[in-house]
Amino acid sequence: MCWKCGSKIDTSLTISRSSTCPVCSSDLHSCRNCSFYSPGSHYDCHETVDENISDKEKSNFCDYFKPAASFSKTAGYEEKKEKARAAFDALFS
Predict the structure, then answer these.
(1) Whole-number Å distance between alpha carbons of 47 and 43
(2) What is the 3-state secondary structure (H, E, C) of 28-64?
């Protein structure tokens, strides 16, 4: 499924670097759409990648890419990140 809009994607077809979601046009071959994406891990990836991919939402050339079946493991990540940032900022105000 698409990480951005949640649309189901036919994974029997090869997802290439230029593949996009037919509904929202977001890049499918991206970290956010990968089963190895794990915020908080080294370079936010469960695989032992050598380089950090700075934009996790854009297409990349990662050879480890495997489409994610669901996104429950990243649910709530953005809210936690914002709460942590607000708590940190509060220390200096």
Answers:
(1) 9
(2) CCCHHHECCECCCCHHHECCCCCCCCCCCCCCCCCCC
- Other CB atoms within 10 Å distance of the CB of residue 80: 11
Give, rounded to a whole angstrom, the gap between the first and last alpha carbons of the chain: 41
Q: What is the pTM of this model?
A: 0.70
Q: Is 15 exposed, middle or buried (0-12, 13-18, 19+ CB in 10 A)?
A: buried
One-letter amino acid of 27: D
Contact residues for 78 (Cβ-Cβ < 8 A; gap 6+):
none
Could you give the maximum distance between any two Cα atoms of the chain, in Å? 52
Kindly state the tokens that stand for 27. Answer: 């890049």
List, for residues 19-67, the tens digit of each pLDDT value. 999 899 999 999 999 989 988 889 999 998 888 999 999 999 999 998 8
